[in-house]
Amino acid sequence: MLVDRGESGYRNVFLPDGRILYMGEGKRGNQEPLGGNLRLLLAHQEGTPFRVFLREGPGVWRVLGCYRVEGWRYALLEEEGRYVYWFTLAPCRCEGGP
């Protein structure tokens, strides 16, 4: 999974404890449980870990490590008048690596 600090227009929030609040996929209208959002919902249900990469510049990505979807919520983003997914990603260990 790729995350950034706002360059893509998504509002990821990096928490001091290492968790990430990851805004779901879809920049217009209410987000739906399709594509990447569905994959993250299934990853939460199944407890599947995945690697996360942070964008550090154009074409430059750094591995942050493995994460799991700790939880999620579907909430109104008032300033845009639409509903979005917020996934809480928590660091974990992946099999065969950090």
From TrEMBL:
Which InterPro entries does the record match to this protein? Answer: SRA_ScoMcrA
Outline the extent of the ScoMcrA-like SRA domain: 7-91
Which named protein is this?
A: ScoMcrA-like SRA domain-containing protein
